[in-house]
């Protein structure tokens, strides 16, 4: 345990306690508490590595200083130039974080095997660095935020810039969460013998405001528990977020320190710049700083020396002029000093056993001038004036004349391809394994699995089987494939038994880096709960967010690690898209590939669970994601056809950047054999399942096909009305095809030659089938499960929504009557 220390001198402890007890008796408990607090805070609010312990700096500081100056300038110039077109961008974030990245680029980030999560709003500086290295041209910089013209995306978007960005980070909270699970996934690949990732390190650069997102801290204990010392968080504590101070009345550094320590992390603080060293010899000043609210400290940083002296240094004997005090308080921070940043990073990498967080203090907007630095509105300042550029030039000592600055737009500055700055930067990158950020995909197609796994499903079964079970059995078979079996990554948030997956426990085993250090209570049973270092299953516990983060890491492993993995994440469908839809969006941005499986789908199919469990809309949410192919299969053989095609489309020779969403049901139903010639229809979204006379057409998906078939029988027997039943495997794919087809859309091709009204029914809200209504071009009726779910028997709830066979038959009769009338 990291945070439990033994009492090596109980005698001394007893003496101290006695003294404190005496204070408490004589001066009261408040006084004793004050002393303790003072002791605690003063010891805590200092740099972890004091100046005298800093390691020697391994680089050429003068050159690095110049490189950083160019990057600062060009980032600001890029945004200001775009600002003239009203395009916006962020100046202050990178300005405060520049050294955090420069030290990483020159000494830490390994281009071959590290993964770096850049803070989204710092992207201008990352582009500026790539410009200095000759990776981006001036023309590209000028197209920042002008993507239709081939320009640079505003933030790290792998989909928009797939040879550059690896990790989409700008939706705050997802970066830190994904970084933890990426580090964890690196270990998983290693422990399973798929890839040696022992040299990989994950760096996550985060804002202090971003730490408020629940996702940012959601996985901290996992990271410590699993001993992820291949992970470092760097939190840029500039004390500000978008609107104002992150913690006006308290202190963010202390709060984060407690949170991370409590979670079992190693904490490194890099707070004060070198100029504070002498001042901080005063315990009184250290204590004052430790009790100054962040809002006040921000004000001090933007104030005159006189104010600073009165508010912070009153009564203290300080040998500094007002101007010196102003300079120190306004800008001397560890995060602006490469030596201090280097020392903190070294500490982080040297620490073994648990991950490290570096809490680094900076000034938001640093070097952009007094109008920007530490100002509440600086997050949204989008341009600097000519005067501000001139001042910046002087401060950073950059070679640009007043005349060159006189134009409308500030120029980009580059020291030239053969300059010492560029040579140095490139040499450092070469030594560190190549350029970064960068994303490369070495194509590595996977072979098709054996056909017999799918033909088993195509045969059907008389015994009722739920499609969830059919899917799980299929994957279980596929996991035995010699070549691709080990690439499957089953992910499930404490719901494996619900989906019949416990049969995987003893064979595939549950991943734990610790192995199994206990006798499982069910070890005598065939399906005992088996954990192992090389386990294949990621049984995540109750965290859909964590599961999605694991899925994201596995789904992009083909690019991040050159190792295609086949994740399937199976979840209660209600707790998928609506709970973690933003992660699905980020997954699409990260070009992830794999199978998302919404189990216990439908508003009426899971009995008795009610309003918060009954999912009648995830198909609609999924339809909004452009990278997602969403299917709602009715039969086991459809599941087989879709999975086989998915494997080809995502892992075959012409792999596409898509992922799948399949909804599967828990209602055991007879599984028919696959009719001839339906495969194309299954994949495109529709085929006629059972002809019945063609007077009307019932389109249905998922479990609803059974109600439609029953309605077909009723109509035939009771009314002599012959109706066709169609299986719609994907409403959204049909719509997508219809919207983009140049010729006749597939839906119309499939239904060509038929007549009569169309009635659609599913276990989803009507808006799901209504997606295709405009393209049917026939009288259209839809039935669905609009509104909140409720508990009851399947039959009673279906009657409530009007999707039971009798209601469907009534709707058909009405539609036929109207069409004839
Ligand atoms: C989920 C989410 N909510 C809101 C935003 C909008 N946003 C962008 S930056 C920002 C403030 C960031 O503050 P901080 O994390 O402290 O970063 P820094 O001060 O380094 O810019 C906000 C609210 C976002 N990008 N993502
Ligand atoms: Mg901040």
From TrEMBL:
Xref: SUPFAM superfamilies: Thiamin diphosphate-binding fold (THDP-binding) (SSF52518), TK C-terminal domain-like (SSF52922)
PANTHER family the UniProt entry points to: PYRUVATE DEHYDROGENASE E1 COMPONENT
Organism: Nonomuraea maheshkhaliensis
Xref: Pfam families: PDH_E1_M (PF17831), Transketolase_C_1 (PF22613), Transketolase_N (PF00456)
Role this protein plays: Component of the pyruvate dehydrogenase (PDH) complex, that catalyzes the overall conversion of pyruvate to acetyl-CoA and CO(2).
Domain PH, residue spans: 1-25
Keywords: Oxidoreductase, Pyruvate, Thiamine pyrophosphate
Matches recorded under InterPro entries: PDC_E1_N (IPR035807), PDH/Transketolase (IPR051157), PDH_E1 (IPR004660), PDH_E1_M (IPR041621), PH_domain (IPR001849), THDP-binding (IPR029061), Transketo_C/PFOR_II (IPR009014), Transketolase-like_C_2 (IPR055152)
PROSITE patterns linked to this entry: PH_DOMAIN (PS50003)
Principal EC category: oxidoreductase
Cofactors that this protein relies on: thiamine diphosphate
Catalysis performed (reactions): N(6)-[(R)-lipoyl]-L-lysyl-[protein] + pyruvate + H(+) = N(6)-[(R)-S(8)-acetyldihydrolipoyl]-L-lysyl-[protein] + CO2
UniProt protein name: Pyruvate dehydrogenase E1 component
């Amino acid at each position: 345990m990291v945070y439990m220390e033994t009492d090596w001198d109980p005698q001394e402890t007893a003496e101290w306690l006695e003294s404190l007890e005496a204070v408490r008796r004589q001066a009261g408990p408040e006084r004793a508490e004050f002393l303790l607090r003072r002791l605690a805070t003063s010891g805590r609010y200092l740099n972890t590595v004091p100046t005298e312990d800093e390691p020697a700096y391994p680089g050429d500081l003068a050159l690095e200083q110049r490189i950083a100056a160019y990057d600062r300038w060009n980032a600001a110039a890029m945004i200001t130039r775009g600002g003239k077109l009203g395009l916006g961008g962020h100046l202050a974030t990178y300005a405060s974080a520049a050294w955090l990245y420069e030290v990483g680029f020159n000494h830490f980030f390994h281009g071959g095997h590290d993964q770096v999560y850049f803070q989204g709003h710092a992207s201008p500086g990352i582009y500026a660095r790539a410009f200095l290295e000759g990776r981006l041209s001036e023309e590209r910089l000028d197209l920042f935020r002008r993507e239709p013209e081939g320009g640079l995306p505003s933030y790290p978007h792998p989909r928009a810039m797939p040879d550059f960005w690896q990790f989409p980070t700008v939706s705050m909270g997802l970066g830190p969460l994904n970084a933890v699970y990426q580090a964890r996934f690196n270990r998983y690949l290693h422990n399973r013998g798929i890839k040696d990732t022992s040299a990989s390190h994950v760096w996550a650069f985060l804002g202090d405001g971003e730490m408020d997102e629940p996702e940012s801290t959601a996985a901290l204990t996992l990271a410590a528990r699993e001993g992820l010392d291949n992970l470092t968080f760097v939190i840029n504590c500039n004390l500000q977020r978008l609107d104002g101070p992150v913690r006006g009345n308290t202190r963010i550094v202390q709060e984060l320190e407690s949170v991370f320590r409590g979670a079992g992390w190693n904490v490194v603080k890099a707070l004060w710049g070198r100029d504070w060293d002498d001042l901080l010899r005063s315990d009184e000043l250290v204590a004052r700083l430790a009790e100054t609210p962040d809002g006040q400290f921000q004000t001090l940083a933007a104030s005159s020396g006189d104010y600073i002296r009165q508010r912070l240094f009153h009564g203290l004997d300080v040998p500094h002029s007002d101007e010196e005090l102003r300079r120190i308080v306004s800008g001397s921070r560890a995060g602006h000093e490469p030596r201090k940043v280097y020392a903190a990073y070294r500490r982080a990498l040297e620490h073994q056993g648990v991950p490290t967080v570096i809490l680094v203090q900076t000034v938001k907007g640093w070097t952009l001038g007094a109008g920007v630095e530490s100002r509440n509105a600086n997050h949204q300042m989008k341009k600097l004036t000519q005067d501000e550029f001139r001042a910046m030039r002087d401060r950073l000592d950059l070679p640009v004349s007043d005349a060159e600055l006189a134009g409308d737009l500030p120029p980009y500055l580059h020291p030239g391809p053969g300059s010492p700055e560029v040579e140095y930067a490139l040499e450092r990158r070469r030594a560190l394994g190549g350029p970064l950020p960068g994303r490369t995909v070495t194509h590595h197609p996977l072979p098709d699995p054996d056909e017999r796994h799918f033909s088993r499903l195509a045969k059907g079964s008389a015994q009722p089987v739920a499609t969830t079970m059919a899917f799980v059995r299929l994957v279980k078979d596929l996991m035995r494939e010699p070549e691709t079996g080990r690439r499957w990554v089953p992910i499930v948030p404490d719901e494996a038994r619900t989906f019949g997956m416990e049969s995987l426990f003893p064979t595939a085993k549950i991943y734990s880096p610790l192995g199994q250090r206990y006798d499982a209570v069910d070890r005598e049973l065939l399906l005992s709960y088996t954990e192992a270092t090389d386990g294949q299953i990621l049984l995540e516990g109750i965290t859909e967010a964590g599961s999605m983060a694991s899925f994201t890491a596995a789904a992009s492993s083909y690019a991040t690690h050159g190792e295609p993995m086949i994740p399937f994440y199976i979840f209660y469908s209600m707790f998928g898209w609506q709970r973690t839809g933003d992660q699905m969006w980020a997954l699409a941005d990260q070009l992830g590939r794999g199978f998302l499986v919404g189990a216990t789908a439908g508003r009426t199919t899971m009995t008795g669970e009610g309003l918060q469990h009954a999912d009648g809309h995830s198909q609609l949410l999924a339809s909004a994601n452009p990278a997602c192919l969403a299917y709602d299969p009715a039969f086991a053989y459809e599941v087989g056809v879709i999975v086989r095609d998915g494997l080809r489309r995502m892992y075959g020779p012409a792999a596409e950047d898509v992922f799948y969403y399949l909804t599967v049901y828990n209602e055991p139903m007879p599984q028919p054999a696959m009719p001839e010639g339906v495969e194309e229809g299954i994949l495109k979204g529709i085929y006629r399942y059972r002809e019945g006379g063609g007077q009307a057409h019932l389109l249905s998906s998922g479990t609803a096909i059974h109600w439609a078939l029953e309605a077909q029988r009723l109509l035939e027997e009771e009314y002599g009305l012959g109706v066709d039943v169609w299986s719609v495997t994907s409403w959204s794919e049909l719509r997508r095809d219809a919207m983009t087809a140049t010729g006749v859309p597939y839906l119309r091709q499939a239904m060509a030659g038929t007549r009569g009204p169309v009635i659609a029914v599913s276990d989803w809200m009507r808006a799901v089938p209504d997606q295709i209504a405009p393209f049917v071009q026939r009288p259209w009726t839809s039935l669905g499960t609009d509104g909140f779910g409720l508990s009851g028997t399947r039959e009673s709830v279906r009657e409530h929504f009007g999707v039971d066979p009798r209601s469907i038959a009534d709707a058909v009769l009405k539609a036929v009557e109207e069409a004839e009338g």
